[in-house]
Amino acid sequence: MKTYFYNESLEKDIVNWILKVDDDIKFTFDIEMEIDIIAKDIYADYINVYNIKANNINAYIIDVTRSIDANNIDALFIRTYIVDAINNINANKINAILIKAKNIDINYIKANNIYADNIKANDINVFNIYTNNIYSNNINSSNIDAYYIKSNDIEAIKIDVNDIDANNIKADEIDANDINYYGICITYETFKCKSIKWRRENSKHFCLDSEIEIKE
């Protein structure tokens, strides 16, 4: 592992605005530079750079202008344009345009697009979600394309999913196989499903603009 204790030692290894180290890197100070970092594993409290490409990133705050490309990311806060993690993202908060990962375990996600196998989060605020499974307290999204969703509350424009298990669902359009909800399941335009079940005696499910279509 190569450890950087101050800016002067770091600047000696930067060539053409790129810090490339064929080893692990540890920063003992906050790094804020307009450079690219290429390394195996990166350990730091605060990173603010242009691009990061690494095997694993372990940091308190990651603030990257353009993109993060890593196998695993473990951070408290990530803010960048693109997050591309082959395996896992473990963070408290992500603010990005595009997030790609196998597994996402996070408290809060704000993004335009998410591509993942599994998402586990408290709050999801995103434009498009493409995933197999979502486990979340609250989902606020324009379009959800998933195999299975389990959430307390879902609010979306369009939901295209195999199974939904939620407390309350509110959407413009729902196209699903099996829906299991607690209190309210409302759509404005279309409502298609194979089956719908409710867990409260006086629960309500309906579509404002058309009849509920039960698919074969």
Key features of this structure:
216 residues; mainly beta; 11-stranded mixed sheet; 11 strands
Commentary on this structure:
The protein is mainly beta. The chain is built from one helix and eleven strands; from the N terminus they run βαββββββββββ. The chain has one helix spanning 7-11, and strands spanning 2-4, 14-15, 18-20, 25-27, 31-32, 36-38, 41-79, 82-193, 195-198, 204-207, 213-214. Strands 1, 2, 3, 4, 5, 6, 7, 8, 9, 10 and 11 form an eleven-stranded mixed β-sheet that branches. The model has no long low-confidence stretch (mean pLDDT 91).
Summarize the structure.
The protein is an all-beta fold and 216 residues long. Helix content is 2%, strand content 82%. A hairpin with a 2-residue loop joins strand 2 (14-15) and strand 3 (18-20).
The SSE string, one letter per element, is: EHEEEEEEEEEE
Q: Helix segment count?
A: 1
Low-confidence runs (pLDDT<50, min 5 residues)?
A: none
In whole angstroms, the N-to-C terminal distance is: 60 Å
Proportion of residues in extended strands: over 45%
Average residue pLDDT? 91
Classify the helix fraction into a percent range. under 10%
How would you sum up the global shape?
A: elongated
Task: Report the major sheet.
Answer: 11 strands, mixed
The assigned structural class equals mainly beta
Question: Whole-number radius of gyration?
Answer: 21 Å
How many β-strands, per DSSP? 11
Question: Layout of helices and strands, plus pairs?
Answer:
Elements: E1 2-4, H1 7-11, E2 14-15, E3 18-20, E4 25-27, E5 31-32, E6 36-38, E7 41-79, E8 82-193, E9 195-198, E10 204-207, E11 213-214
Parallel strand pairs: 1-4, 3-6, 4-7, 5-7, 6-7, 7-8, 8-9, 8-10, 8-11
Antiparallel strand pairs: 2-3
